[in-house]
Amino acid sequence: MTTRRERAGALGAPIDRVDGRLKVTGGAKYAAEYPVANVVHAVIVTSTIAKGRVRKLETAAAESAPGVLAILTPQNAPRLASQGNNTGAQGPAARGAPAMRVPTLLQNDEVHYNGQPIGVVIADTFEHAMAAMQMVKAVYDEETPALDMATTPKIPPEAVHPLGGERAYKRGDVDAGLAQAAVTVGQTYTTPLENHNPMEVHNTIASWDGDHLTLHESTQGIFSVRNSVSKNFGLAPDNVRVIAYFTGGGFGSKGGPWSHETLAAMAARHVKRPVKLVLTRRQMFGPVGGRPRTIQRVTVGATRDGTLTALRHASTSNTSTLEDWVEPALSQTRMLYEVPNLETQYDLVRLNVGSPTFMRAPGESTGTFALESAMDELAYALNMDPIALRLKNYAERDPESGRPWSSKSLRECYALGSEKFGWKSRTPAPRSMRDGRWLVGYGMATATYPARRQQAGTTAKLMPDGTIDVRAGTQEIGCGTYTIMSQIAADALGVDVSRVKFELGNTDMPETPASTGSVTASSTGSAVHDAAVALKAKIDQLVPGGLASNSAADIIAKNGGQPVEVTITSKPGPEQQQYSFHSFGAVFSEVRVDPDLGIIRVPRVVTAHGVGRVLNEKTARSQIQGGVVWGVGMALLEETHIDPRNGRYVNADLAEYQVPVNADIGTIDVHFVDEHDSHVNPIGAKGAGEIGITGVAASIANAVYHATGKRVRDLPIRLEQLL
Ligand code: MOS
C-alpha cells in the first residue's frame, strides 16, 4: 500500500496537465474543428451605425455571388419563440435582478450599437461567405447615439439592480464618521472599457436532426447555452445538446450565450445543413460583451492612528441600451475592512455600445483598483505604512453579514508577501528610490474574491479494464479542469491518477454550473469528490479490500456482472448561512519609471494568497500568474476605444488592442499560504480562478506613485500622465 502522499498525482501535487499531450499535439479539438459532414459556413453582417433602424438590407448582389446559399435579415429571418434570457452565468436571475444577455437575433430592425449583428450570410465556403458579406448594403434611419458617459443621464435609481447586494448599501453614519476623522481622502478613479481576447474566438457548429439541435460550441457554460438556445426556439432543454470538450479561453466572455449560437442554428435550419459560424476578431468587440467603464468615487476617513471612521464608495458604470448590467465594483468595499460607517451606491448609464458582461473578477478587479488606491492615498496622508494601515483595520469577521469567515489568512498573506518581496527595504517617501536613471517604486494592495459553491452532479463508474470513468458536464477553459478533477477523484478513490479517466463538456452528462466566478473547483470538484467517495463505498461493500486488492473483473462479477456505478448531486448546505466565504491575498509590485520619458516597467510582482486547499500547485500557480499578467495589462495597457462620432470600436483587433506581451512581464513570484477551509466544501478549496487579477492594478498604481510622486487615478496609466 502506498501512502496518501506517495500516490502518483496526489491532491495538491503539481502534476502536468493530463490533457497536455493532446493540447501540444493538436489532438485537442476545439468547437470549429469538429468534422461535421455537409457543413456550410455563416458569417455575421454587422451594423455601421450605433443607433437607429435598418430600413433595408440590399442583398441582391450578395445573393447571386458565388457559393451563397441564403442571407438572413431582420426582414426575412424566422421569428423565434423568445429573444434573450434572464439566466446569466451566475445563476438564475431573480425578479429585480439585472437582465443578462439580450442578444440581437434579427427579430426587429433596431440598431443599438455599431457592430451589432444585422444579418447572416450562408455560403458553401467561409471565403464565399466573407466575400458576399461585404457586398451587402444596409440602408439606415440613423439617430444620434449616446456615447458619452459624462453627458448621458444616469438611469432612474430604481432601475439599478446589482448582481450582489443592494443598489445602495449603508451601515452606520458616514457623515458622522467623516466628522470624527483626522484625515480624509476623497478622490475619483476611473477604469476604461475593456474587451476579452481569448485566443479562440467565439464559434459554433449547429446541426439539426429533426427537432433536435447539436451545438459544438466554444463556451464556459454548456448548460447555460443549452437553456437559452432551447428557449429561443421554443424547445425543451433536452432537445438541445451542447458539446465543448475544449475551450480556448473565455475569462467571462463565454459564460453564457450571445447572438452567434442562435443565429447559427437559425441558419442551419434555414438551409437544412449544418452551419459553422466563427466570429471575426473584430466581432469580439460588441457582439461579445466586455468590461464596462467605471467612474468610482471613494471617500475614506481615519483617526490619527489609522483607524477607519468612514468609507463611502460609489460606482457609475455603463451598460448598453439592450439590457441593464451593473459592474459589481462595490462588493469588496462592504466586507474588506472593519469600518463602522459605510455607504456604497451604484449608478448606471445606458450607452449605444455592446452589452457589458463578466470579465475576469468582474467587480473586484475594477473595485479593488479604486479602493486599494484610496487606501494607499490614506496611508500617505497618515504617514503610515500601507500594510500597517490595512492591519489596523483588519476585519476579524465579515463586517457586512456579521458572520465568521470560513477561513481567512490575509494576515499571513501580508507577512509572507512582504517578506518574499523585501518590502522592508522600501523607503516610504515618493521618488526616494532609484536604480541608475530609473525611478523605483514599491506598491502593494489587497486581493479578494468570493468563494462560491453551487450544486453540481457527477457520475463515476468502474470500467472492466480497471479504470474509473468519471463524468461531469463542466468545461475545460484552460484552467486545468481535466487535471484537478482527475486528482480529486483519484484521491477520494485511493488510486493513482492514471486510473481515472475524467470526461466533461457534454450536456448529456450530469449538470454542473458554468465555469465562471471561480466556482468550478469548489462546486464540480465537490461533486467529483462525493461521487468518488460513493463509488469507493459501494465497491468496499461489494468486496473486502475494495479497489486496492481486487481486480475490476472480480468486483463487477460480485455485482452480478452489472456495471458498478454511482451518480450523485452535490450541493452546499446550512454552512452557507453560517459563514462568510472569501479568498484573500496580497500583491506587491515593483515598477521602474524613466524620469524623462515616462516609460513604465514592472520587473517583478510577488503575490501571496489564501485560496483554501491548493488542488494542484502547478495549475493554481498558472491561474494566479495569468491574473497578474492581466492585472499588468489593466494597469498599463488595456482600453477599448469608441469613436465619439459614430460609436465604432476603433481598436478592435490584436494589433491595436494592447495586452501585455512577454517583454512587458518580469518575474511573477506566486506564493500560497497553507490553508484548508473545512467549511466551504468537502475538498477545502476556495477557487483560484478570479482572485489573481484583483489588487494588481492598484499595487502598480501605488508603486507608480511611490516611484514618481504622481498619483494616476485613471486607467490605463500612460507615460504621458507621468511627464
Ligand atoms: Mo470569470 S469573469 O468567467 O474569468
Explain what the structure shows.
The chain has about 725 residues and is α+β, with helices and mostly antiparallel strands. It has 17 helices and 26 strands. It has a seven-stranded mixed beta sheet with strand order 3-7-1-14-11-12-13. α16 (about 615-635) crosses α17 (about 695-710). It starts with 19 loop residues before the first helix and ends in a 15-residue tail after the last helix. Mean pLDDT is about 95; it is low at about 1-5 and about 85-95.
User: What amount of the residues lies in strands?
Assistant: 15-25%
Query: What is the overall pLDDT average?
Result: 95
Main β-sheet, spatial strand arrangement: 3-7-1-14-11-12-13
The rounded Rg comes to 26 Å
Notable characteristics:
seven-stranded mixed beta sheet, alpha+beta, globular, 24% helix, 723 residues, 26 strands, 17 helices
Tell me briefly what this model is.
The chain has 723 residues and is an alpha+beta fold. It contains 17 helices and 26 strands.
List the SSEs and their pairings:
Blueprint: H1 20-25, E1 40-46, E2 52-58, H2 60-63, E3 68-72, E4 87-88, E5 91-92, E6 110-111, E7 117-123, H3 126-133, E8 137-142, E9 168-171, H4 174-180, E10 183-191, E11 203-209, E12 212-217, H5 222-232, E13 240-243, H6 260-271, E14 275-278, E15 294-302, E16 308-319, H7 331-335, E17 342-350, H8 364-382, H9 386-392, H10 410-421, E18 434-435, E19 438-450, E20 456-462, E21 468-471, H11 481-493, E22 500-503, H12 520-542, H13 546-549, H14 552-558, E23 564-570, H15 575-578, E24 582-593, E25 600-610, H16 617-636, E26 667-672, H17 696-708
Parallel strand pairs: 1-14, 12-13, 16-17, 21-22, 25-26
Antiparallel strand pairs: 1-7, 2-6, 2-8, 3-7, 4-5, 9-17, 10-15, 11-12, 11-14, 15-16, 18-19, 19-24, 20-21, 20-23, 24-25
Helix pairs in contact: 8-17, 11-12, 16-17
Dioxothiomolybdenum(VI) ion is lined by residues 220, 250-252, 255, 358-360, 362, 516-517, 690.
